[in-house]
Amino acid sequence: MSDILLKLEGVHTHIGAYHILHGVDLAVPRGQLTMLLGRNGAGKTTTLRTIMGLWPASKGRISFGGKDITAMATPQIAALNIAYVPENMGIFSDLTVKENMLLAARKAKHAAQMDEARLQWIFKLFPAVQTFWNHPAGKLSGGQKQMLAVARGIVEPRELLIVDEPSKGLAPAIINNMIEAFQQLKASGVTILLVEQNINFAKRLGDTVAVMDNGVVVHAGSMRELAESESLQTSLLGLAL
Amino acid sequence: MKALELDWKPLALVPLLALIALPLVGSGSTWLTLTVAGLAMGMIIFIIASGLTLVFGLMDVLNFGHGVFIALGAYVATSVLGGMSDWTGSTELWRNLVALAPAMVVGMLVAGAVGVAFERFIVRPVYGQHLKQILITMGGMIIGEELIKVIWGPQQIALPLPEALRGSLLLGDASIERYRVVAVVVGLVVFALLAWTLSRTKIGLLIRAGVQDREMVESLGYRIRRLFVGVFVVGSALAGLGGVMWGLYQQNVTPQMGAQVNILIFIVIIIGGLGSTGGALIGALLVGLMANYTGFLVPKVALFSNIALMVAVLLWRPQGVYPVANR
Fold first, then answer.
1. pTM (2 d.p.)
2. How many CB pairs under 8 A join A and B?
3. ipTM score over 0.90, yes or no
4. Domains, in order of start, for chain B
């Protein structure tokens, strides 16, 4: 059994007058890819934003590598080697692809200071990043932007990569490329927490899975167990994988 | 897909406005005089407005108190230059420029230092609350004006140009005031430094990224509040520099001068696109030219003409000539 890198215990989140998370319990094992599934409005994105401190938890505890990060500010959380790719990808449209990557490389002051070997590895994972290196990021297609968003997350070694719906709005061919990239990332040992609605995407990538509904985690276990159990799929997700 | 695409249409507005004015002014020499005067005025307004537009872009803060830094810079200049009358009274240009340098530096330092306190005690408590920002920053400006009256007195103070910067250069029949040439040069230097910082340094990249999506900048591990304080202080210092330039341009200073310039600055940053430094330069040049042409042609509509200009630009591009993405 792997050790737990990220752990949420009884996390509640309020956004203004709205009570969104009602005591989320979630464990992300180190070195594995954890899928966070659930219907629209179940609280998946809110969970990710709460982990990142963008919407602070009103109750409960979030720990990363055993360290309590519940009350930390977003930059402090990110500095713990956590990369976050939001649902809208967070691409800086007016900046070039290179400048987007340079910003994510916190240790580099200039493009020349970015780790060249790592960049070459990223270029192999996401060729569009190299092709459009000096182009404005705002001119990229949706799939290319998603590749850039993930590439930005791994431009330096990170302990945890959090990605919100990477397949959203992408063509099937691009989704396949994305799955291959995540498989390679997984093989490199990065811990990944992925929110997804695309079940096939989840099935091909997930090691562990948590299913959310109404602001709580209603099921947690292995992805294989969920994929093989029609009754679980029907009761948790209302569909068959 | 092109690697770099320059949106040239807003750039063309400046020569277009100048060309439209040429037949209306009639005389080529008068037109040249007005055009140089307009460019000089525009560059001074740009120096003042560049910080404000970044402050708005980066933190969504509406600082209606920016004018106090202008007045402060100008008043500091009266004290510094007043104590260097031997240098300002000299007919040697280099001695005049040497006198201007400390006036500018001290004006920037004092405005920047007051900017630190202004951000800490006036702006910080009202992040994210636009109405309160407008009210409290205007209140801050009023307090600043009153403090200026306490220190320098309520009356208008003369701020004469150094000896060698008075008078005009003759270019054919056109008369170009010497100080306006200096103002254009200083404005170009400030723009070049800003452009270099924003495009060639990581701090500049962070500012540009923060203007677009500050939440994402924080998610990448950068403390945007610190960045904002830095930009606010630099913006205040630039307003102080602009105040020195504006005071010398007007050759007198009053505690209310900042509030008067405030109107022009807001027109400039709205025309430019909130958060856009390049847009602020275009906006400032357009406002400077328009003010000078209409001041000559139809003096009574000088201020109105700039408001009309802003309306026309917004009808063309509702978010300003260079809208900032993601806003």
1. 0.86
2. 74
3. yes
4. 9-314 (1.10.3470)
